[in-house]
Write a structure and sequence with these properties.
Number of strands: 4
Largest sheet: 4 strands, antiparallel
Shape: elongated
Strand order of the largest sheet: 1-2-3-4
Number of helices: 6
Order of helices and strands: HHHHEHEEEH
Radius of gyration: 25 Å
């Protein structure tokens, strides 16, 4: 057997480029899959938060025989804290009021830049807005298509999430498609 001069056991440039392209394609596929998994997990966590808030509001209704009557107007800093404190009495903690997707995006650079570099203290404390029902005991269950809570953010792909008097959770767009 004769050996050609200059041939070694190394890789050619074409082989190295091919391997790098394959690795880059695999990396793109993995990153896409991770994003989808994270989005599903965050939506599931958000749905769980809404169901926990629903349970807290149901408990409040049972104990007090009326919907919580917030003395503050929406937009007032005391509004958010009042809801956190009021449902805290029935075991709902502050973290339950936070959408994980919105929380993640609020701490990302582009969101902060869009808000003019706002500090964390300027962000809403609650990410789910309760419907301002009157204090009649039957009012919250009177309209089956009136959500009890609605998310302030529509980052889950189908519009803001809402929870209804029967405990079902739906996004705004899904709700409209069903024609409820």
């Amino acid at each position: 057997m004769t050996r050609r001069r200059g041939s070694g056991s190394g890789f050619t440039v074409i082989e190295l480029l091919t391997v790098m392209v394959i690795i880059a394609v695999l990396a793109v596929l993995v990153v896409g899959a991770v994003e989808q998994i994270r989005a599903r997990a965050e939506r599931a966590n958000c749905t769980t938060n809404l169901r926990n808030l629903y349970a807290g509001l149901s408990s409040y209704l049972s104990q007090n025989e009326h919907w919580p009557q917030c003395p503050h107007k929406l937009g007032n800093q005391a509004y958010d804290q009042w809801w956190i404190d009021e449902l805290g009495k029935v075991g709902i903690n502050e973290k339950t009021w936070h959408c994980p997707t919105l929380t993640r995006e609020m701490h990302a650079g582009p969101y902060l830049e869009a808000q003019g570099g706002a500090s964390k203290s300027k962000f809403k404390q609650i990410h789910y807005l309760p419907t301002p029902f009157d204090d009649h005991p039957a009012t919250p269950r009177k309209w089956p298509t009136q959500p009890w809570l609605m998310e302030i953010y529509s980052g889950h792909g189908n519009g803001a999430l809402m929870i209804f008097p029967d405990g079902s959770v739906s996004s705004f767009n899904e709700f409209q498609r069903k024609g409820r």
